[in-house]
Predict the structure.
Amino acid sequence: MKITKISAYQVDLPLHEGSYKWSGGKAVTVSDSTIVGVETDGGLIGWGEVCPLGPFYLPAYGGGCRAGIAELGPHLIGENPLELNKLNRRMDAALKGHPYVKSAIDMACWDVLGQVAGLPICNLLGGRYGEDFVLYRAISQESPEKMAGSVAGYREEGYRRFQLKVGGDPDVDIERIRAVSAQLERGDKLIADANTGWVMHEAARVVRAVRDVDVYIEQPCASYAECLAIRRRTDPPFVLDEVIDSVDALLRGHADGAMDVVNLKISKLGGLTKARQARDLCVSLGVAMTIEDSWGSDVTTAAIAHLAHSTPRELLFTATDFNSYVTVSTAEGAPQRTNGRLAASTAPGLGVRPRMDVLGDPVLEVP
Ligand code: MG
């Protein structure tokens, strides 16, 4: 089987909440998503999606996805989409870095592989664990009272894990963590995600001030060295996210005892092939995982579901259902949250059928 054509579609994804705010005053109101179709000589089309969280979260931006696919695409025509490791080596040889550009192409080739095999990607990634898996809800950075109200509302909808966007003024962040923790009950989990927003003395203050609260601290500072310094002088359970962007970073973090949990985002690592490698390594090392992506809609959510559902329960800390955050549905067949939980499709491949009326005309076609 050969890749004969790669098409990219641009879709704007507004938010049900209107905006999403996190550390350092960063905010998005509409996300710029790229949906990619990989067509083969057998007539099958696989689908993938990449959606950065604005141009200022990770080193990725919406226009960069399309520019990168225009650059990389011609090198992939004629390649076999079923040979995922070989295809990834081809992509890495043709374009250095830019993992997010490769992510949607890799995802689409997994979709082709699943359709050819007649199996859900979840099964191809190692097997389905249990009926479904647990989701978290990201709580946009607002006043402590507003965030507490938001958590109470999402708790009503069935979520039991809440990731607070902190990384702002440390005094207000302390109030945010306390106000939200008062809403929680036994079995709920609270994560304070600073998204690199604190400098070390601020992180140390916040962690010390909430030491009586049952809370996980996620990515307090910008660099690995700063996060490691905070990790070594404080005792709450610790999650690393932005700095864990490769197997190399993961191994270093594990060797240093730098985290209890890592956040694996599919596009941050460069696609499902590389995310699976990191996931399997975490399973072998006993490191728990949040499995998600930077942002996205139905296609991304389907891919997250396959990777998360094929992860052993005790090591899957939590995952995300981005298609419930955004107002636009880009595909039929994507998994839908029930009571704060999600399950991967049992249909072959990703199990999604893009809504071509939503995707519109391709903005890019190779060749
Ligand atoms: Mg995070």
User: Anything to note?
Assistant: Residues 3-118+355-366 form a domain with the Enolase-like; domain 1 fold (CATH 3.30.390.10). DSSP finds 13 helices and 18 strands in the chain. Residues 193, 195, 218-219, 241, 263 surround magnesium ion (CB under 6 Å). The chain has two domains: 3-118+355-366, 123-353.
